Amino acid sequence: MKKIFLSLILLLSVTLITAQKTEYTTATNIPYYSEAEAKTDPYIKERCVLDIYYPKNTKGFTTVIWFHGGGLTGGNKELPEGLKDKGFCVVSVNYRLSPKVKVQKCIEDAAAAVAWTFKNIATYGGDDSLIIVSGHSAGAYLALMVGLDKKWLKADGVDANSIAGLIPLSAQTITHFEIRKERGIPDTQPIVDEFAPLYHVRADAPPLLLITGDREKEMLGRYEENAYMMRMMKIAGHKQTTLYELQGFGHNMTEPAFPLVVKEIQRIKALKKK
Is the peptide bond preceding residue 99 cis, with omega within 30 degrees of 0? Predict the structure, then answer.
């Protein structure tokens, strides 16, 4: 009788855990420009779409906007395994690519996708005060540009300071090498101008977590760029800039970085809920 009772308790516990497991659903290829804007350029219709992976029957969830890498010349929207089943929504974004468009258009697309999320995520159950912008490599560069240079989101009626946090993975913080290529400048010649996240350091920016690979294994001077970014943000008076260097990993360091990303998302959510 005792064994049967214990078995029933165990079965009930397993049933409750299963019942409590969050289910997710995905809406795909949602345009983030208006139909009128898409009609002006077939490339907008082709590339400017996003996917939303979100918890079903849940209200007030956090949203992470994820921009893929690829040097601003390649890549496609993706749902990283390390961000799945973590209790938050992931918005995966496609954007137009160089050399078919100038890099400025890539940034405009990133801003349009972020603005769309602010204006629409509540429809899916999300909290628009808990939107975090992230990405890897070129996508991290876009996240920083949109989050630090306020003009891009202002054009879409959104204050960049509404972003709950920025988490760029191996971002270029000087002027992106694809922009330098447009100008005939080699990728070994660094410049800092309005197209460099470094140009836009400010004290009132959203919380910033910078993550790079090992300085001896990263692309060019990627770790050093991020280290300088951290230092200048702190000098500017920003109180929440952190830098992690993942020892032993090169530029493609997303998998070991994702646990840090998730931890930061949880930290930001906890701060917002206080």
Answer: yes
Closest residue by Cα to residue 13 from 23, 2, 5? 5
Say how far apart CA 196 and CA 225 lie, in whole Å. 11
Question: What CATH number is associated with residue 43?
Answer: 3.40.50.1820
pTM of the model: 0.92
Please report, as a single letter, which amino acid is at residue 172.
Q
Answer yes or no: is pLDDT of 14 > 90: no
- Asked whether residue 255 is assigned to any structural domain, the reply reads yes
Tell me whether residue 82 is in a domain.
yes
Q: Stretch 43-71: mean pLDDT, rounded?
A: 98
Total domains present in the chain = 1
| In-domain check, residue 13 | no
